């Protein structure tokens, strides 16, 4: 019987890295994930990328490898579209935030960002320029937005353009750092699933402001927005207004992605007016 492409990739990975006992864990729109055993005792993970996202996910995996386990899951090796990496099964920072410990979660995010943005030796992998990442926002047809939200689109895209007109130092960015992409481990909180972006360090915080999911609309609470902005600015030294500006811009970018895929943007529309208000007051 012929093997499927994922079965073939899995078989080759087990042989290449002398792994055993593969257990399917998840299939996402972007990858298949398996838990495997090394030497009959240590668990590891295999992530097999789907061809449709291999370029973006491969870029992120190479950045994860470049982090070398400092603030991020360790990548042991990459071959083609298969990533052999550390197995993490702890809870996420999203769990802490949803349990009412959002300040604690925000402090942890600030600490982790400080780790990820530390200078490192070794050749930096090819990353996506942040300006390029924002093209879907700038090219979005405003007519696809709900009529009552078109002013939010105009304001947010204008903020994004102003931020790009006032560039800062460029650093490697995770690019998708939110509560549920940060897992607990024996080594502390570790990031997973980066996108691999190059840009303004303050952008790294933007996704925090529309997350975590399933948190009773916590992200739309003006008090939570203010508290998060205060903690992140104080601990990392990034200007509060710039942090909030990127939060507005990224929320609109996320809405543009969702609209292009035919997905609802109700949650983002609950956050964006309050983000814009916080930005105006900063």
Explain this structure to me?
The protein is built from 10 helices and 10 strands. By secondary structure, the protein is of the alpha+beta class. It folds into 2 domains: 5-86, Phosphorylase Kinase, domain 1, CATH 3.30.200; 93-281, Aminoglycoside phosphotransferase (APH), C-terminal lobe (Aminoglycoside 3'-phosphotransferase, Chain: A, domain 2), CATH 3.90.1200.10. A hairpin with a 6-residue loop joins strand 8 (182-183) and strand 9. Helix 9 packs antiparallel against helix 10. The longest helix is centred in the last third of the chain and has 21 residues, at 240-260. The chain is globular, with a radius of gyration of 19 Å. One of its GO terms (molecular function) is phosphotransferase activity, alcohol group as acceptor. Pfam families: APH_6_hur. This is Phosphotransferase. It comes from Devosia sediminis.
Key features of this structure:
282 residues, alpha+beta, Phosphorylase Kinase, domain 1, Aminoglycoside 3'-phosphotransferase, Chain: A, domain 2, 2 domains, 5-stranded antiparallel sheet, 3-stranded mixed sheet, 10 strands, globular
Please give the structural blueprint.
Layout (H helix, E strand, L loop, with lengths): L4 H12 L2 E9 L3 E8 L3 E8 L4 H14 L7 E5 L2 E5 L6 H6 L3 H15 L11 E2 H4 L1 H4 L11 H16 L5 E3 L8 E2 L6 E2 L5 E3 L22 H15 L3 H21 L5 H16 L1
Parallel strand pairs: 6-10
Antiparallel strand pairs: 1-2, 2-3, 3-5, 4-5, 7-10, 8-9
Helix pairs in contact: 4-8, 7-9, 9-10
Protein name: Phosphotransferase
Organism: Devosia sediminis
InterPro entries: Kinase-like_dom_sf, NH2Glyco/OHUrea_AB-resist_kin
């Amino acid at each position: 019987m012929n093997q499927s492409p994922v079965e073939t990739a899995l078989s080759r990975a087990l042989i290449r890295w002398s792994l055993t006992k593969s257990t399917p864990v998840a299939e996402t729109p972007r990858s298949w994930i398996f838990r495997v055993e090394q030497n009959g005792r240590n668990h590891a993970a295999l992530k097999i990328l789907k061809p449709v996202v291999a370029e973006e996910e491969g870029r992120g995996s190479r950045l994860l490898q470049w982090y070398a386990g400092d603030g991020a899951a360790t990548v042991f090796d990459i071959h083609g579209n298969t990533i052999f990496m550390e197995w993490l099964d702890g809870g996420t920072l999203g769990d802490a935030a949803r349990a009412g410990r959002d300040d604690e979660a925000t402090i942890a995010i600030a600490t982790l960002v400080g780790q990820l943005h530390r200078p490192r030796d070794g050749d930096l992998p090819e990353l996506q320029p942040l300006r390029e990442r924002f093209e879907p926002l700038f090219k979005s047809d405003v007519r696809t937005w709900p009529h009552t939200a078109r002013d939010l689109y105009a304001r947010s895209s204008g903020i994004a353009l102003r931020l790009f007109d006032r560039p800062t130092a460029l650093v490697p960015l995770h690019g998708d750092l939110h509560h549920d992409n940060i897992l607990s481990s024996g080594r502390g909180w570790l990031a997973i699933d980066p996108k691999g972006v190059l840009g303004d360090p303050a952008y790294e915080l933007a996704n925090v402001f529309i997350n975590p999911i399933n948190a009773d609309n916590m992200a739309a609470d003006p008090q939570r927005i203010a508290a998060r902005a205060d903690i992140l600015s104080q601990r990392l030294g990034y200007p509060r207004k710039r942090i909030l500006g990127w939060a507005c811009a990224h929320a609109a970018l996320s809405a543009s992605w969702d609209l292009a895929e035919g997905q609802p943007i109700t949650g983002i529309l609950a956050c964006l007016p309050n983000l814009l208000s916080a930005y105006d007051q900063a």
